[in-house]
Amino acid sequence: MTAIRLLLVDDDPLVRAGLSLMMGGADDIEIVGEAADGREVEALVDRTRPDVVLMDIRMPSMDGLTATERLRGRKDAPQVVVLTTFHADEQVLRALRAGAAGFVLKDTPPAEIVDAVRRVAAGDPVLSPTVTRRLMEQAAGTAADTRRARARERIATLNDREREAAVAVGRGLSNAEIAAALFMSVATVKTHVSRILAKLDLNNRVQIALLAYDAGLLDESEGDGH
User: Cα–Cα distance between 98 and 177 in angstroms, integer?
Assistant: First the structure.
């Protein structure tokens, strides 16, 4: 099995050392580089070709948000997992909108951080619907109405089945769970998700979920508060 190539980005050398020790103990993860600032990231990615970047969100010269936006705008961009000290933070939400595949708290148990890297490398987001909802509530305000109108315009380009699949992704369902809920094969679900990503020019399932929240689709689809 090919090891997951991981790049660590954090301005605190002690945090980097801890992450390196933690990740170095996993047989299926290879640390290919370390950076202390967002400015170093693009050159390091070119040189080391990581599968996943574990990115601190707060750094002095270029923060993790800007570095994430730059990375995810590139062709064949690595997956990004944001490191943060806050559960619900506007910068975390912006990083997710920019294409990060999820986030982990710095005080998360080591085994869970290792698992998060494995999951995003496999194409699974690291984000629970509960946390997504909390983030969206945190960001609610005057910009919310504009965001909702814009999100609904984009969702309107989807057909009915794609819209149903987008709602299911927003609820945090796996492909198998979506297939069971919508009475279709897993292969068909994958096709729908791929088409949603292509039509809406999105990076990953996290962005589908955020767009579904923005458009108010989850409020409409679930009256029980799940």
Answer: 27
